[in-house]
Design a protein that fits this description.
The chain is α/β, with parallel strands linked by helices. The chain contains 6 helices and 7 strands, in the order E-H-E-E-H-E-H-E-E-E-H-H-H. Strands 2-1-3-4 form a 4-stranded parallel beta sheet, with helices on both faces. The chain has a 3-stranded antiparallel beta sheet with strand order 5-6-7. The structure holds zinc ion (ZN). Zinc ion binds next to helix 4.
Amino acid sequence: MSIDVNGKNVVLTGALTTMTRAQAGDQLEALGAIVSGAVTKKTDILFAGARAGMKLEKAEELGVTIYSETELAALLSDESAIARVAAKPVQASADVMQEIADGEKVLVQGSAAKPYELTNVGGVYSCSCPAWRNQSAPIDLRSCKHLAKIRGSAAETARVGRKVSSVTASKSSAPKYCWPKSGKSISIPPVFG
Ligand SMILES: [Zn+2]
């Protein structure tokens, strides 16, 4: 059995026994689900653990698809296994700009005074920067802009299964203009910088 959560609005409720709701939420997000806290008309799937209350009632009322924790656990164990298998061959592909060999250490100057240490220990790539250390993903699925800078954004994106950029997003955001639908003349705002 396979539940497709990609692009779906998903809500978790009740007590889970094999994982925390936060862990389940992170994993569902990694599979492309949009996890929210409240059941609404937009909700596609409700995963209900033990003693689920109001949210379960509301989901039933709204005709939301409801799954149990057993099905949730099966989905997550299944998908993570698939993701791991799929991610492995990519590490050796031509996408990698500069590989960090197993046991090797690479220093990258970041925003801190001291350079960050990037290491590969048995295929687990880590960085000493706060962004890497504070990520909620499992250690083998964490990345950061420093790893992306060395190994390449494409290689890191493929390895962890989500977009990793070597630059901070806020720095590259261009101003956005709204164009009128038709005919009207507008004044174009000046371009700064
Ligand atoms: Zn880093």
